[in-house]
Amino acid sequence: GMGDTRWLTDEEIDSWKPLAGLVLLLPGYLDEALQAHGLTFFEYSVLVVLSGASDRTKPTSEVAHLANGSLSRTSHGARRLEQRGLLTRHRCPADGRVTLLTLTDEGSQKLTDAAPAHVESVRRAIFDALEPEQAAELGRLTRMVLTHLQPTGPWANQPQLIWAD
Predict the structure, then answer these.
(1) Which of 1, 81, 92, 131 has its CA 20 to 30 A from that of 8?
(2) Hey, which bits of 3-153 come out as E strands?
C-alpha cells in the first residue's frame, strides 16, 4: 500500500527530474539527426550491432537484445530494413527456427554515411555540455545504473555496441 512506498526525497527529486527530461528528450533528438539518412536511432542501432559481428550476421533475438528492442519491434524493423536493401533475413541452416539478420554492403555504406551525423548529434547533446572529467563521471554513473537495472545486459557490460567506429 501507500504506507510501503519509498517516496523520493527532495534531493532525489532534484536528480530525477533532469534525468527524466533527458530520457524523454534524447531519443527524438537522436532520431532527428538520422532522419536525413532515412534511419531512426533504433534502425541505426540494429545496423551497428550487425556491423560488429565478424560475418555481419546475428540471430534476430541477439540483435533485439543488443539494440534494446523487443523481438517484435526488431523483426518489424528488420523487415523494413530488408525492403530497403540494408540487411537480409534468412533461416539459420543449423536451426530453422532461428532467423538470421545479415548486414548488406548497402547497409554497411548507409551506416558509414550516417555515422558522422549521429556522432555529431551525440557530441552536441552530451559532450559539448560537459568538461572531460564530467563526461567520464557521467559514464561511470550511467554504467552503475545500467548494471543495477540489467546486471547481464549489453548496455551495462558492452556500451560500445551502440557506436560505429
Answers:
(1) 131
(2) 57-59, 87-91, 99-103
Cα dihedral 157→33→103→150 (10° resolution): 20
Residue 36 has, within 13 A of its CA and on its CB side, a CA count of 10
Nearest residue to 98 via CA among 63, 66, 73: 63
State pLDDT tens for residues 33-67: 999 999 999 999 999 999 999 899 999 999 998 88
Residue type, 132: P
Q: Which residue has the higher pLDDT, 148 or 40?
A: 40
- The 10s digit of each residue's pLDDT in 67-121 is 888 999 999 999 999 999 999 999 999 999 999 999 999 999 999 999 999 999 9
3-state helix, strand, coil in the chain (%, to 5): 65, 10, 25
Cα–Cα distance measured from residue 137 to residue 142, given in angstroms and rounded to the nearest whole number: 8
